[in-house]
Specification:
- The radius of gyration is 20 Å and the shape is globular.
- The chain has a 16-stranded parallel beta sheet that branches. Strands 4-7-9-11-14-17-20 form a seven-stranded parallel beta sheet.
- The two termini are 20 Å apart.
- The protein has five helices and 23 strands.
- The protein is mostly beta strands.
- Strand 1, helix 2 and strand 2 form a beta-alpha-beta unit.
């Protein structure tokens, strides 16, 4: 990755979140919500059709096959957002000058108590859940602002910013902010592939902060590991649970992996086997990317009793102080690398190619 690209990625790495923004449909009777056409606007100050993201999503006609655009004015929008399966092809577009100006956030974790009893669980903690196929997000920030230090009584600290469970999803110039389990890339069922394309995005977290069984291609993204102050182990970038029937899991191509954590204190990944599923043979491939010194000579880790060597972990042509080649770092051959590209990960049986 060239120096200009790294500088541009670094400029987008700020994690400050503005405060405020009310929720719900704009109440003014003089300005009723407009529901005609294929576009709606959300603005926290009441100048749009709605003042909450969920209200705008709820107004999208079910089953639409055409692209439906929700433009979001600069501001911070609090509260969970759910894109249901019967509302495909939604485009959620931030209208600020940069993704930092539009923030969609919530603050619950796995162990946060539910009002009706029990806790939210990892999936239920998600600030945004995407079940609608063909969803696209551009130029905005998704965050889970759960404060671990403020809640020492909560031990289930998984706090998802975005959970995806649908196919053909795109994130373009989007920021994902959190700590543990920031970005959950899932699918409708273990043996059902779901493809996600991430272009020029920024993802930050500490423990397993990119995880799941989805097929995801990270293209020219910045992946930033937070320093959680627990050297020598400052966390894991990925925790894939790819089904053994799926040839493709997580791909990072021309990305920058950065951190302020001490050298050799962050792992590239470990294999997650949900419910001890032996068929979850996770895959992470990192190629043509820049790796900081936080990545050490033994960057893959076992997950409980599941050894990393039985997972599908590999690298190819990486650079930077953390891009060492050791016996503990499997490398693709040139012939193998030809089959592990963004295009190959996304094509599927329908030839999907959002990168073009």
């Amino acid at each position: 990755m060239d120096r200009r690209t790294l500088i541009r990625l670094a400029a987008s790495s700020g994690a400050a979140i503005a405060v405020g923004a009310t929720a719900g449909i704009r109440p003014s009777a003089a300005h009723p919500a407009r529901v005609s056409g294929a576009r709606r606007t959300v603005a926290a100050d009441g100048s749009g059709d709605f003042t909450s993201i969920q209200a705008a999503v709820d107004a999208v006609p079910a089953g639409t096959t055409a692209r439906f655009t929700i433009d979001v004015a600069p501001g911070t929008y609090r509260g969970q957002v759910i894109i249901p399966a019967d509302k495909p092809n939604i485009l959620l577009r931030g209208r600020g000058a940069c993704p930092e100006q539009v923030v969609i956030t919530d603050d619950r974790a796995n162990g946060t108590p539910r009002p009706d009893g029990g806790t939210w669980g990892t999936s239920g903690s998600a600030s945004v859940t995407v079940d609608g196929a063909g969803f696209v997000a551009r130029n905005l920030t998704f965050s889970n602002s759960f404060d671990e230090a403020a809640h020492p009584e909560i031990t289930g600290r998984q706090a998802v910013a975005v959970l995806t469970r649908a196919d053909r999803i795109e994130f373009d110039t989007v920021r994902f902010l959190g700590n543990q389990d920031t970005l959950y890339l899932n699918s409708p069922a273990a043996d059902v592939p779901a493809r996600i394309y991430l272009r020029r995005c920024y993802v930050e977290g500490d423990v397993d902060f990119i995880f799941g069984r989805g097929t995801a291609a990270f293209d020219r993204c910045r992946i930033h590991s937070l320093d959680r102050g627990s050297a020598p182990n400052n966390g894991y970038v990925t925790a894939p649970s790819t089904s053994v029937t799926n040839p493709f899991g997580l791909l990072f191509a021309a990305c920058a992996l950065t951190s302020d954590a001490p050298p050799a204190s962050v792992y590239l990944g470990r294999p997650w086997h949900p419910s001890q599923d032996p068929n979850a043979i996770g895959q992470t491939v990192i190629r043509d990317s820049w790796l900081g010194a936080h990545i050490g000579p033994t960057p893959w880790s076992d997950f409980g009793t599941w050894p990393w060597r039985e997972a599908r972990f590999a690298e190819y042509h990486n650079r930077g102080p953390g891009a060492l080649v050791t016996p503990d770092r499997p490398q693709l051959t040139r012939a193998q690398a030809a089959g592990y590209t963004v295009a190959a990960f996304l094509a599927g049986s329908d030839g999907w190619s959002p990168q073009h």
